Every structure is written in C-alpha cells, then in structure tokens.
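Lab notebook, bench 4. The sequencing result for the construct came back, and we need a structural model before the next group meeting so we can plan mutations. Quick request posted to the team channel:

Model the 3D structure of this chain.
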Amino acid sequence: MKKTVMTATLMIAFAVLAAVAQSLAQDPAKSTTDSAEPGHAYRLDFTVNELEDGKKINTRQYSMNVNAGEQNEMKIGARVPVEPKSGEFQYLDVGTNIWCRLRDHKDVAWLGNDILLNVKSEISNFAVPEQQGQSMRPILRQLKIDASTIAVVGKPMVIGSVDDPNSKRQFQLEVTVTKLR
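Done. Here's the predicted structure in token form:
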C-alpha cells in the first residue's frame, strides 16, 4: 500500500514538473521572476539609408516609443486596390511598414543592459517606367528585412541591408535605441 501511494505521489510530482517545464519551454524569453515594476520605455529611431555605389543618396527617418516587453507598429503609405478576378477587389499596402518588439533585462535576465530587438520592415513602391516592361498593370517593388538582434542603448546599428537587383543601389535599415526616463 505504501509503495503504491509513493509511486502515485512521484508520478503526480513528475507530471507537475513536466507541465511547468513545458510552459517555460513555450516562451524561453520569459523570466522566471515576477516583478511589480513596469518595463522601461524606449524610443527607437529608425533610419532607412539608400546608397548607390557606396554613396548615400537618400535617407528617411522614423521614430516610435515602445515599452519593454511590448510590440509596436507603424505604417506609412497607401492602400492600393487590385482586381485579381473581375469584380473582386483586394487592397495592398504600399509604403513603409515597421513592426518591432523590444525586451530588456526585466523580460530576459541574461541581457544585462542590452536590448533584445525583433524588427520586421517592409518598404514597397511602384516600379519606375523603365522597370515596368510591357506590362499594363503596375508593378510593385518590395524590400523586406526581418531580423532579431541584441542592441546596445545609445549606439546606432545596422539591422540589415539589401541590394536592389535592378540597380547598383543598396538599402540599409539602421536603429538607435534610447532609454526614456
């Protein structure tokens, strides 16, 4: 009888431990310590640099505030109607979209003073007439960068860069993280 009770108790204990381990494994970035203190606020300054033959020819800047542990998104542009089938319309976002999630040491203890940053960016526009070819329908060009990195507060860093396959241009997405008071 004692052996059966002991075996049942051990089985329940292992089941509880397995459930706890599984819930932690589903989001490894979660800290095991709970804190009543809210996360810090940060400003993210994004810069999109356009280079041709290594020389900067255009720069666009975007900023957003985000709280640690949260995600934010910005969209700048237009919604363009397209007709895939006669009488049916869908809308495409054309312009600049930036989504980010920021986590600091409150969310991920091993980070120290650094920031864990997830960024998804998409820049789209209409192709210039030389790139249209014979098509009567407008052609959209798209540059996309999805990246995760560890950023240092106050230091600008290039998150990603892409070459334009139709020219000698390169596009770079840069971010600077600033802690707000």
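The longest strand covers residues 88-103.
Will bring this to the meeting.
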